[in-house]
């Protein structure tokens, strides 16, 4: 993924910049010079962040477009699945069988009528 490589490069550069300015700030005794050092460091960090965003922006736009397409394809199926399932509270937690199958059991009407632990009961 190119944007991760770019972020790693920028992080290394930012760390090197911070380490290289630390001795300079330690040598200078005045408050003005320390403030100036922090100001320069802040400007350097802003420049690095701008360049990182410029490098990552096309990849993020492609990702946004691809996710939009995928959501457009999946949305009707997810709506149908949601209509079939109904309320998730109608089911027990998933169980993994020894053979690797996963089953999700529907709660019986008696179980649905019972209050959950910690739930208030109307009297």
Automatic annotation (TrEMBL):
Secretion signal span: 1-26
Source organism, top-level taxon: Bacteria
Protein's UniProt keywords contain Signal: yes
Organism: Albidovulum litorale
Keyword annotations of the record: Signal
Name of the protein in its database record: AAA+ family ATPase
Source lineage: Bacteria, Pseudomonadati, Pseudomonadota, Alphaproteobacteria, Rhodobacterales
């Amino acid at each position: 993924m190119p944007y991760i490589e770019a972020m790693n490069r920028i992080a290394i550069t930012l760390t090197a910049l911070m380490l290289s300015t630390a001795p300079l700030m330690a040598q200078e005794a005045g408050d003005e010079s320390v403030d100036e050092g922090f100001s320069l460091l802040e400007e350097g960090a802003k420049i690095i962040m701008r360049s990182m965003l410029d490098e990552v922006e096309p990849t993020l736009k492609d990702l946004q477009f691809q996710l939009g397409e995928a959501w457009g394809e999946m949305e009707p199926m997810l709506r149908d699945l949601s209509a079939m399932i109904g309320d998730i509270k109608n089911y027990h937690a998933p169980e993994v069988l020894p053979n690797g199958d996963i089953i999700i059991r529907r709660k019986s009407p008696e179980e649905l009528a019972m209050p959950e632990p910690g739930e208030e009961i109307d009297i």
